[in-house]
Amino acid sequence: MLYHPLHIRVIIAVICIDMKSNKSPRRQKSTPTNPSLRVGSSYSNSTRLRLSDRPLEAVCRAILPIGSAVGDVRANTEALKRYLTYQPSYIDMAVRFGAVTMNLSSRILTGRSLYDATPEERERVIASLTRTTLGSNAMEGLKALILLAAGAEMATSEIMEISRKASIERPDATLDVTPSIAWSNGRRFDVIVVGSGAGGAMAAMEMAEAGMNVAVIEEGRRWTVEEFRTIHPLDRFAGLYRDGGSTTALGQPPVVLPIGRAVGGTTVVNSGTCYKTPKDVLLHWRDDAGLTLADPDDFMSLLDRVWEIVKVGPVPLDVMGTNGRTIMKGAEKLNWSTGPLDRNAPGCGGTCQCAIGCPKNAKYGVHLNALPAACAAGARIISEARVSRLLIEGEQVVGVEATRTDGSVFRVFAPKVVIAAGTTETPLLLRRSGLGGHPMIGKNMAIHPAIGVAGRFEENITAWHGVLQSAYVDQLHEEHGILMEATSTPPGMGSMILPGFGHRLVAEMERADHLATLGGMVADLSVGRVIGRNRATLIYNLSRRDGKRLMEAVRGSAKVLLSAGATEILTGIPGQPPVHNDQELDDVISRSDPRTLHIAAFHPVGTVAAGSDPERFPVDPSGALRGLQGAWVADGSLMPTCPGVNPQITIMAMALAVAGNIIEQG
Known about the structure:
Layout: H1 3-21, H2 54-63, H3 73-84, H4 89-110, H5 119-129, H6 133-154, H7 156-165, E1 177-179, E2 187-188, E3 191-194, H8 198-209, E4 214-217, H9 225-230, H10 233-240, E5 248-250, E6 255-256, H11 279-288, H12 296-309, E7 313-314, H13 317-320, H14 322-333, E8 338-340, E9 342-343, H15 370-376, E10 380-383, E11 386-393, E12 396-403, E13 409-413, E14 417-419, H16 426-432, E15 449-456, E16 469-473, H17 477-480, E17 482-487, H18 502-510, E18 515-522, E19 529-531, E20 537-539, H19 544-563, E21 568-570, H20 582-590, E22 599-601, E23 631-633, H21 648-665
Parallel strand pairs: 1-10, 2-13, 3-4, 3-14, 4-10, 5-20, 6-22, 14-23
Antiparallel strand pairs: 5-6, 7-9, 8-16, 11-12, 12-13, 15-18, 15-21, 15-22, 16-17, 17-18, 19-20
């Protein structure tokens, strides 16, 4: 169809227009607190759609047809509309343009609109639109959004019932948090920490306990355990992530990269999986990058300390769930290395809601340990404030300027600033502050590209009954850089791996409780970059080497599932049929292009890397930003390369090291 290139070009043009017109930081909509949006309400209150919404309903009708047990198409349309309210304007425009394009295609192919077409005609339209890579990507993007919104809506009752039945493991921590709207201008501190995630929280704790007067400024808001037990899951997901969870790296293929935004940062929404930095990675950072901060003799003790602070322990088998136990069984039959993952989740009840906020407060993120420790030592947290720039006099930082939720501006002063805004936001803050001159700022981004594979079993698995990320298979890790982890998602929110559209997709969803799921991620080559000043635009093209590794991750994951007894494998490779044995698996992989994979990614690092060479690294080995007195970096952007494992423990240990250097300087 001629509309595929036009469709993608218009989407890219809309993105570019949005970037050019974004002269000041845009505020993301906060999570609604209207009781009508909490559990028990319905998105389908309106009985009549606006004319402009008819194309959206037609697309929902084509992808998730009405008249099935999966749900009502009008409710799904309303859920999609609701989710789009959280998205940047270009996402909303692209989705609506895609819906109009599908309807136009339907009129050309069938003589009538997609809304009025028969099920067979809708399937004909979809088949036509997915014949090219560009068209397939566009259709899969629409499908992913609809499945997320509709799946969350349809699973709301189950999610909230699980939440209500789960006892609260620990109360919310005592935090000194002031929303920016109530914060006065001109306050002075010894040090300001920008960002309250894994790095910022640990740095703040260390410096506050050393007697420094610390202010932590966080763009997101504070969430409570009661909200995790009562707010609609779609509102939780959209409110806890930057841009409603739609962050995507542009490239071949496009890569979805969800990034948390809350008091506590991504530790509020990650899986809780913990690894200590591999020694060979630390040696590479020390010897190749000159990052003396990562010397194993000293860094290992910091890792041990963090391990104790966040209370890491293996997933109990009685909580793990059938998904994790099935994966371990398959790996053991292959004589592959496997076991329960280590997680910072003491008291986990297996609610599988890590990604949308734990309803038990069991996952022990920094909002429950490092931040309360910092506040107990006198630190203050300013929430819902976006730091627009550093304040600089000569070559010395003197504070920051930030924007409140109402658009007003305030300043906080300090002779020291620790930047821990995250790998995608720290480069932007430096550019807005006139500090983006180093050629490597924003470059060198590694992201752990990942795939998902599902195996269908005769017995019921119900992967979402248990721990979201529960077991590891690291047989291919040391030699090939491939780490496999048994991973599910909250009920209804993990259907993107399911193949097909229309009635086939409906049938797959109705059998989802017989699927076990295994994810594979690879240590990549740090080929991405972050551009922009006010809104991050991520560019990432999968390298040939990493593409081959992802295909090997598909192969390894499928072998584990087949060994566990799966009757068929959904490889997640677009356009490929399910496989039933090793021969079919090899055939599918041999004829597939890695650039067509549907890739998610996690753990972005490296965009303001630290090392000894001033030309290669914007930050020196102590964590100090080159070219400005009083500024340090303490988040994942410090890492010279991909760490090869889930990085939260590494980030926390690095932040402690940076904070220690600041304290030593006085």
